[in-house]
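tool=predict chain=A
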Amino acid sequence: MQYLQRVRVANSVVGNSSVATMNLSKILPKTYRKDETMTPKPVAIRVQMPDSLRAKFKAQCALQGKTMNEVIIELMGKWLAEASQPE
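tool=predict ok
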């Protein structure tokens, strides 16, 4: 069931018709998909690096059975966690 339909159904239960026609883009953050999963919307980034560094990184990821994307997301999460800790 789509979100607008959910809002209409939910509002019909509680009797609130003013919100029933509200556009969901005003309710949901733009960083989330408007589908059943409510998962964060993926975004792409572009990084410039030496070809040799990319090749080594790709090979190491393959040896560990991970994609480059998985490892980059993991590394970014660790870096952000460390950066947010007080020294």
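Residues 68-83 form the longest helix (16 residues). The two ends are 47 Å apart (CA to CA).
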